[in-house]
Amino acid sequence: MDVNVNDELFASLMKDLYGSLPRQGPGSTDVTRKAFGMLGALQEQPKILDIGCGTGTQTMELASLTSGHVIGLDIFDWALEGLAQKVEQAGLIGRVHTIQQSMDAMEFPEHTFDLIWSEGALYIMGFENALKTCHKLLKPGGYLAASELSWFRDDPPAELREFWMTEYPDIKTVDDNLQLIADCGYEVLGHFHLPDETWWNSFYTPMLSLLPGLRDKYAGSPDALATLQESETEMELHRKYSAFYGYEFIVCRRSD
Ligand code: SAH
Predict the structure, then answer these.
(1) Atom of ligand 1 minimally distant from the CA of 103
(2) CB atoms < 10 A from the CB of 8, how many?
(3) Ligand 1: residues within 6 Å at CB?
(4) What kind of fold does domain 7-254 have according to CATH?
(5) For atom 13 of ligand 1, which residue has the closest CA?
(6) Mutate to test the pocket of ligand 1, among 29, 124, 129 (most ligand atoms within 8 A of CB)
(7) Cα(121)–Cα(70) distance, integer angstroms
(8) Would the pTM of this model clear 0.70, i.e. be above it?
(9) Interval 69-112: pLDDT, tens
(10) Rounded to whole angstroms, how far apart are CA atoms 17 and 206?
(11) Which residue ranges make up each domain of the chain?
């Protein structure tokens, strides 16, 4: 998801394409719980930041797994409205907050959070940049848990490599990301591949069913049509080549 929030047409397309999906990226509640289970002990009321929270399915899960204060941060109002609705329905106003801000310009003081969470979003600010930024925002010994698009094998077919070199040129192998994490001052506590069905169940499959209607709605905009085509190409490549790449969930701790 490349974002230009100042472009109204683009913002409306993003809302139409992602806003009604159960999640805005690959993931599942089981995956969130599994990663959470890899953390060490947390404070009784931890301060938690969920970066690129989308409509907040995992944000709500974090609120139910802890008795902490959780902030969901996202750049889009429609995403945060989705989260705010869930918070209200769950009666968690006061414990879960939303902040509309770019992850590139987060304004929290250093050493604010016990846990920073981010599913399918840190690539937007660049993984290395995110690791460094989160290191400052975490309390000493605080945790970072994030899923990052990674090569699972180092021999991807040419058409797959070309696609991701355009979409996310910084994509690395899992081993290279683990090394980067260590170099940025974290100890890795655990990591795992997201199961392939987490790409489809709450993300690609519902998105696929939206494409024909959106092609009609945006028929007059070549840029919008190109974005829709890109999403479809991404899904086709995933269907063929999911053994070669995917999201790696990595759970680590600021080593102090
Ligand atoms: N974590 C959610 C959403 C992942 S998709 C989930 O797993 O379902 C990536 C999210 O990042 C989207 O909700 C998108 O709106 C948000 N996003 C994109 N650019 C951003 C930016 N610059 N700052 C903050 N959030 C951003």
Answers:
(1) 23
(2) 9
(3) 1, 3, 23-25, 27, 52-54, 58, 74-76, 79, 102-104, 119-121, 124
(4) Rossmann fold (3.40.50)
(5) 54
(6) 124
(7) 17
(8) yes
(9) 999 999 999 999 999 999 999 999 999 999 999 999 999 999 99
(10) 10
(11) 7-254
